[in-house]
Amino acid sequence: MTVSKTKxxxxxxxxxxxxxxxxxxxxxNDIALASKKGRRTLYxxxxxxxxxxxxxxxxxxxxxxxxxxxxxxxxISPDEKMLEMIYxxxxxxxxxxxxNGTLRANFFRDIWRVExxxxxxxxxxxxxxxAVLLEGQxxxxxxxxxxxxxxxxxxxxxxxxxxxxxxxxIGAHLDDETRNRYVSNIVFGALHRTKI
Length: 196
What we know:
This protein has helices spanning about 5-20, 30-35, 40-45, 50-70, 80-100, 105-110, 110-140, 145-165, 175-190. The protein has one domain: Tetracycline Repressor, domain 2. The chain is built from 9 helices and no strands. The protein is mainly alpha-helical. This is TetR family transcriptional regulator.
């Protein structure tokens, strides 16, 4: 097994154990046993459980980044793409947090630690938003004065509603059509979308 495959396996096993038993209740020995690797192999890749926890978060963010990239590359209009990227992002983060069970508590408790890992993801996401905004501007769909600033603002707005969205505090009582209308009005009002 290659180095990257071994590390990926350790991260996946750790993710499953953290979800099932909780980060606090999972030991490095548990991870080594469940992955059928020795403790020495585990410590070759990760100095501590904290380090492997952050690697789990990073691997989940890489999956999310790939999902966002696939949406950005779709052959649909930039305005549709922008909305789909926002919903993909929010729904995927919600799904990751819930799928990983007890990681949910750690995610909210350790949000600042998670933030350090997210820096690379955030930069990629801003670039994806920027690419869609530039495409929309080139096609006359959006009228934007500063694409870079707008991409950053869209990113931080979406990031800002992430926790309330995961907790069901935003739009939980709305049907999809009503929710989409509210989101569209806010996003497209800010981007000065022209009618096509």
